[in-house]
Amino acid sequence: MKKLLLALVWGAAAAPACAQVYVGAGVGIAHTDTSEVSLKILGGYQASRHWGIEAAFTDLGGYRGSNADSVSLALTATLPLDRHWALMAKAGAASNRTRAPGSTDHTDALVGIGVAYAVSRHAGVRLEYEQYGRVAGPGSGFNDRADNLALVGKYSF
User: Could you read off the pLDDT of 15-43 as tens digits, one per residue?
Assistant: First the structure.
């Protein structure tokens, strides 16, 4: 029992050593009813090499003559391939807003995949694809879904 308790204490003490807070920004191509340039800012907390949480704001560009954006919160999973490359996935919720007449805000599932490259201990880039679900609420009469392919720069503190 003492060995188990000691292992838990050492594990808890070591966990914060690899934890990192990060911020990032990116540009991409969003698909709603048309293809538009997208802009994204994000922040997150990488709790371990494999797990984290991330919040983001994404401007999805034009939507039905107006604009659409999304605020999201997701759990992230990372699979390191070597010192520089990693595969990533995310799942969470996206609050999608449009300003198109007759549309309503809508919250839907967010899923994403990507590949990341660590340039240095603090800086990295990633190419990611995210699916935001429906852009407008069910009562709006619109059934368009949003997705985004983006190149994101990331800085870890």
Answer: 455 689 999 999 999 999 899 999 999 99
> What architecture does CATH give domain 19-156?
Beta Barrel (2.40)
Give 52: exposed, middle or buried? Use CB within 10 Å, 0-12, 13-18, 19+: buried
Can you tell me the distance from the alpha carbon of 42 to that of 54, in angstroms, rounded to the nearest whole number? 7
Cα diameter, the chain: 66
Beta-carbon count within 10 A of 107 CB: 16
Report yes or no: 87 and 55 within 8 Å, Cβ to Cβ: no
- For the stretch 78-101, pLDDT in tens is 999 999 999 999 999 999 998 878
